[in-house]
Structure formats: structure tokens, C-alpha cells
Design brief:
With 473 residues, this protein is mostly beta strands. 8% of the residues lie in helices and 25% in strands. A hairpin with a 4-residue loop joins strand 22 (411-423) and strand 23 (428-432).
Length: 473
Amino acid sequence: MPAAYKRTGKGDYGNHDTLNGPRRIDYIVIHDTEGTYEGVPSMVSDPEYVSWHYTIRSSDGHVAQHVRTKDIAWHAGNWDINSRSIGIEHEGYLASGGTWYTEAMYRSSAKLVKYLAAKHHIPLDRAHILGHDNVPGPSPETLPSMHEDPGPYWDWAHYFDLMGSPLQKAKKGTSIIIRPTYETNQPHFTGCTAKPTGTTGTSRTTGTTGTTGTTEDNEAAEPANTTKSVNPTEPAKSAKPTEPVKSAKPTKSAKTTGSCSPHGASAVFLRTEPREDAPLVDDIGKRVGKPSTYSVYDHSARASAGQRYAVAARKGDWTAIWYLGGKAWFYNPAAAPTAIPARGPLVTPRGKHVRVYGRAYPEKSAYRSTVAYQPSTPLDYVMHPGQYYSLGLTLPGSYHATNSFNPANHVTVTGKDRYHQIQFGHRVMFVMAKDVRVTHRTPPIHVTHRPPPARVAHRPSPAHATRRTPPTT
């Protein structure tokens, strides 16, 4: 089922970029279609729409390829990630993901990802196998409109089991990997479907038939958008402030049913204090001026299975991680842990106020006169001294300039500045290597133990009380 590659007007074309030679591929990005498989042919054949490399059907795991993996599909909403990734769509809706994400789909997708990872030398971990919800916004303006699929109901642990790369605990861990037990981890979510209007395959965990998701939480919904607005610093196809959705989604005025039905999930909520009634942590870039919510579409205060974080503190059954420039607490009791020890490098700031970025672009001096300079605009977050974040990838800044229907005119700009990709929040982000120090040691962790039970002084009972001897005369 090939994607369209056609001229659409003077100097414009779609819906992907063909290349004459190989490209660097660092990621495989997991999406859901927010629509049914029946709508895929009309979308990928539209030269004025977006594109992706593969689609997996829910009912039987059928795989359709649309774009050759050596070519660049327009799927992630971030041109830097597009140019270095393969995108795989999965039929379904994230708000009903537990029913659309069937065992046939998981097995077929895992087999494909394992093959692609081996072919392109991509590590099988959550620093390289990303959800669309883990892709950073390329600039502060794009952050609020970045997508949330495949959502909390995607079973990442099972997915990695099927790929033969299970999420296992390490000895003498320097960090932790989020790893709740999917079936019993059932957080409270809002914003699921009001009136299901369709069916698909059978759920792996519940045995129920999938239904379409057609409503979103009013505070956290993705706005319906079909325009192709342009960021002047990047090609129109790559950095749209709101990437065109792959099927018509409801607007924020859509009604919801409130709470979602209990279901297993890969996510844990993150709070400002180590207690169940504490507020959720805020994401100042995703929800500008608004608090985080429990919407199934709002990942602002969530960590997901497989993601690796540095531990900041422990208190009783609670663990704090460094997250978006501060401490974020999640419930992690020893009797039923939601995280496991992990090993891997960490980064910590060399100085004060280290900025983070949504794309790893080269310095200005690396650009030729024929390629417009693409600035790496810092995001609204800051890494502070004493904080630690997991390092997943180190790479030189690069930019693949296309803007031409003829791939012979494409130019790749590679700079001298190096970047570290880190797990900064729910999304991965980048820091300049010169701004941080890499360590393989366990960072300092503040541990507060439960206070011991109060000791009550023993008082002898009256029957055993010592008798006072009367004074002698």
C-alpha cells in the first residue's frame, strides 16, 4: 500500500521524502491511527497529507508498508526525529487502547520492530523505541499540540517481552526503570469513550471486542486540526505547530463520560509530594498555565513502563525521580513494586540552569550558504545543579535539508556540537554535551525511613507492684 509521492504545486510535493542513499536511523516510533484500518488507504495516498512507514491492523496483525525505510516519512511532528526514525501506526484509539491493541497486533508489531532494530542497529530499549507521546516538541510553541499516542494502555512490558528484550532488573542499579504489573496496575483515568461506534479484534487482556474512541477530556483533548500551518524556520512538512491528525478527532467541546473503566495500564502517576492526595506534577511546556489532569490524553504527570529515570529520594513506599527539572513522586511499595533497579549512564549539570532542546541541530557555522540556518531553540524547561537524568544516546548535531522533489538536491548538515538525549520528562529531550557531566555512579539519594513505632514504657501491674516497706521505728 504505497504512500503518495507527487508534486502538489509550485515547489511543493508530498507526502514524504525519497533519498538516494542510506540515512542514520536512531528510533522506531510507535503510533496509533486514531481511526480504523479502512481509512488508511485514502490517507497514505493523499500527497497533501502526512505519511508513515507501516500500519498494523488490529484484528489479525496484518502489516502494510507505505514508505521505504530508507526514505523519510512525515509522522512524528518533529523534523529532527522524522529524519532519523521509522514510524509504525497501529489501528485503534488510545482511549480504547486496551481493546484495540490485540495480541495479534502486539506479536506482529514486535516481530517487525525486532527485525528493523537488528537491520538498522537500533537498541531495543525505551530510549530508542519511542511512543509518539515520547517525541519532544521541536520548539516551545509546538509542545502543547504534540500527540499522546499510543497512550497508557499500550503494554510496553509485554511488547518488549515479545521482542526478546524484557524489562529486567539489574544488580547494583544506578537508576530505575518504570515497571508496574500491567494487569493489576489500574490508575484512574478520565476522558474515555462516551458512545462506542465500532468494533475490531479481541483484547489480549480482557477478551472483549474493541470499540472506537470518539471523545476526549475537555481539559486535555487534542484539538481537531487539518490545516498545514508553517513554522518559518523549518520545512512546512516537518514542524507544523499542530501536526495534521490522521483522522478527524473531536474538538474540546466534545462531551465525555468522566471516568474510564478500570483497565491495566503501563503508566504511573507522578505527584509533588509522597502521598496519594498530593497534586500531580505540572508540565509547564505541555499544559501552559494549566495543572495536569487525569485525562487518558494528558501524559504531563505520567511515567511509562520501560522509561529509565534517576532516583532523587525515597520515603516509605514512595520513590521520587528527577522529572522536568524537579522531584516527582510515585507509589512504589516493596511488596508490589512499580519500578525495578536499572543500570546506565546519567548526566548532571556542569553549571547552573542548563537548557534542554527538542531537536539536535548543528551550530550556525556548520551550515552552507545553500541551506538556511535552523536554530535549536531551547524549550521552556531547565535542568538544575544536583539533578540527574538518564542518558540514552549521544550524537553530533545534524540537519537533513530536503525542500526538493529531487533527492539529488538534498543536503545533510553535520556540526561539531554534540548532544546527549535524556529522559527529561515523559518525552525524551536533548542537552548539549558540553553543558553536562556523564556519570556511571549512583547519584546521592535522600532516604527517609518510616519512623519506628513509639516505644511505650512498661509499667508493672498493680498486682506486681513493688510494695513499699514501712519505715522501722
